[in-house]
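Progress note, sequence design subtask.
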């Protein structure tokens, strides 16, 4: 025996209003936190992605723009240093791990593969990035400068 369905359409829609309201409330509750996730964490991900892409593709001038302005002022990049980056090709760039050093600083361990364009010799090195949140500019800056691919040579 099937339940009798009211023939009046107005009666049918009134019975489903509480269920629809509950569904709409639940959907809003689940989707609302996604709208609020555009804070420092997402900004850090964007900055680190832009940095790693610039390094991977050999855009060291672009990467230099993501370096902390205070660091850039204290350690200006010379034409000779920039020219030196043109002699290498990054073969891989892998994050090994990261950890927070407080609410406004993050450290990230990186494994980088480098190929000398003249000798075609490849070598790997580890590099530690330090990221700092700047509340005034509402952005993350890397405070360690460009990777030193010639360390120990």
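Output:
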């Amino acid at each position: 025996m099937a339940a009798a369905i009211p023939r009046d359409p107005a009666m049918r829609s009134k019975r489903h209003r509480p269920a629809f309201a509950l569904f709409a409330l639940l959907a809003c509750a689940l989707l609302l936190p996604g709208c609020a996730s555009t804070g420092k964490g997402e900004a850090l991900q964007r900055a680190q992605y832009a940095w790693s892409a610039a390094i991977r593709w050999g855009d060291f001038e672009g990467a230099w723009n993501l370096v902390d302005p205070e660091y850039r002022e204290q350690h200006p990049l010379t034409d000779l240093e920039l020219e030196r980056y043109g002699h290498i090709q990054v073969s891989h760039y892998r994050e090994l791990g990261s950890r927070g050093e407080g609410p406004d600083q993050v450290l990230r361990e990186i494994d980088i593969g480098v190929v000398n364009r003249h000798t075609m010799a490849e070598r790997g090195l580890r590099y530690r990035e330090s990221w700092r949140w700047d509340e005034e500019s509402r952005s993350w800056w890397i405070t360690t400068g460009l990777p030193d691919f010639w360390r120990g040579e």
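The chain is about 40% helix and 25% strand. Work on this subtask will continue into the next period as scheduled.
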